[in-house]
Amino acid sequence: MKHPTALRGLELGYGILGIATTSWAVMRLPGAWYLPTTGLVIAAAILSFYSIRLNDPVRLPGAMPIEMATLLLAPPAVSILVAASTNLFTSIRYRRNATRTLFNVANLAIPNGLAASWLHLAIEPRPGPLSIPRDLLPVATAILIRMIANLLGTAGILKLEGKIAGGYWQYVKESLGDEWRSGGFGIRILPLLMALAFPVAGWWALLLGALLQIAIGGSMQRYQERIERQTLLDGLTGLGNRKAWDQYRRSQQRSPHLVAVLDVNGLKRTNDTYGHDRGDEILMDLAQRLVASIDHRWQGSRVFRVGGDEFVIATPGTDGYVKFCSDVEDVGMEYSQNWARRGVPASISVGFASVPTDAADLAVAFTVADHRMYRVKSGSVDGAEGVSD
Fold first, then answer.
1. Which residues pair with 61 in a beta bridge?
2. For 110-139, what is each residue's pLDDT tens digit?
3. Which CA distances in Å does 375 have to 206, 344, 352?
4. 3-class SS of residue 349
5. 193: alpha, beta or left? (left if phi > 0; alpha if psi -120 to 50)
6. pTM of the full predicted structure?
7. Which long-range contacts link 28-35 to residues 24+ away (Cβ below 8 Å)?
8. Which residues have a Cβ under 8 Å from the Cβ of 158 and sit 6 or more positions away?
9. Alpha-carbon Rg of the chain, whole angstroms?
10. Pairing of strands 347-355, 58-61
11. Inter-residue contact 316 to 255 (CB < 8 Å)
12. Cα separations (Å) of 351 from 37, 238, 283, 306?
């Protein structure tokens, strides 16, 4: 359930706190750091076009190495300004509205301010060379403070947007676990190694650490994307599975579509009579025919296997409804004739619907088409139910 008033209140209130934090940083910026801070802010702007997605909704901005290096090696004011600039440029890039931009700026400036304040108290003087083992624990604690503070703000926004099903604190706890398992905390620790090497190798250590962070983070993102793609595929047919269909209908939701729901008739009987290998074979054959025929004739079409013997075809647009129905039914006829020649009674039932003619969105269109399919299966009516082109 969304809470728009509370959401805007959180964005604005947290944003004002962020403005106060960054204003303090501007006033407390040491004169010797004016030019370096300007260079770091420009670098953060350039790197805002690059990001690493560890998990949803967490993205590590490309300027993360710079942020962490300034947190560990620069005065607190510098750390706050660089962090605020990072999310400012990122929000501009993604065209966030004014209140969300204020929130995003605050959601890095404030955590960096807290972490920098902790380091200022734990390590004296600041800035100064860091060493092991003396500074290992306070630096790791600072990074953890920054990560948790940032997550608390993000969780608040997601909760008010209705994107968190469970409780707020449960989500925070689970997200911290995900961060640990996905390497989020580990990749944030890399700047610690950079900072510890700084007294010996200087800025070359920071450059090398930044390159390592980007390379490792990029590899993690590519690996995660590959895993996610696999979780969206049906293992037997290679089509998109139910999860992929759910994602698709949410992303398209109310856009005009033609929808067909197909069900293989008598699959259980086929499995019992001819064996599960033959049942798998008729499913794979139908999937291949649908992809080869519908994808070829209807640009942008997607075919999903959403159940054991149930398939969905979603085609953007509403033009050519009758031809779409005819093409799908032709595939079904060719499919059943092919298997009849081989002595296997394989056939399909199909129901159709469209958005917005039959339903306001894809979820309802699926329900309508599914209902019509079952009526066809019982032999009562035509699946298109007389909808004209």
1. 51
2. 999 999 888 878 876 544 556 666 777 887
3. 67, 23, 11
4. strand
5. alpha
6. 0.57
7. 28/75, 28/76, 28/77, 29/75, 29/77, 29/78, 29/81, 30/75, 30/77, 33/74, 33/75, 33/77, 33/78
8. 57, 164, 171
9. 28
10. unpaired
11. yes
12. 63, 23, 18, 15
- Tens of pLDDT, residue by residue over 47-67, are 777 766 655 545 666 677 777
CA dihedral (176, 177, 178, 182) positive or negative = positive
The conformational region for residue 320 under phi > 0 = left, psi -120 to 50 = alpha, else beta, is left
C-alpha–C-alpha distance, residues 65 and 247, integer Å = 33
Q: For residues 379 and 256, what is the distance between their CA atoms, to the nearest angstrom?
A: 29
Paired tokens of 113: 């301010």
Handedness of CA 287, 289, 294, 300 (dihedral sign): positive
Q: By the 8 A CB rule, do 357 and 378 touch?
A: no
Handedness of CA 130, 132, 135, 141 (dihedral sign): positive
Taking each helix axis as running N to C, give the angle between helix 184-201 and helix 203-231, from 0 to 180 degrees, rounded to the nearest 10: 160
Q: Report the pLDDT value the prediction gives residue 371, as an integer from 0 to 100.
A: 94
Q: Which two tokens stand for residue 148?
A: 């948790």
Tokens of 187: 């990749």
Cα angle value 211/212/214 (rounded, 5°) = 65
| pLDDT, mean of each 10-residue run, the chain (389 residues) | 80 90 92 90 80 59 74 84 87 85 90 88 63 74 86 87 80 75 61 59 60 65 69 87 90 90 88 87 92 81 91 90 92 91 88 92 93 83 44
d(CA 193, CA 95): 34
Looking up tokens 């010797």 gives 32
Average pLDDT, rounded, for the chain: 81
- Would you call 257 helix, strand, or coil by DSSP? strand
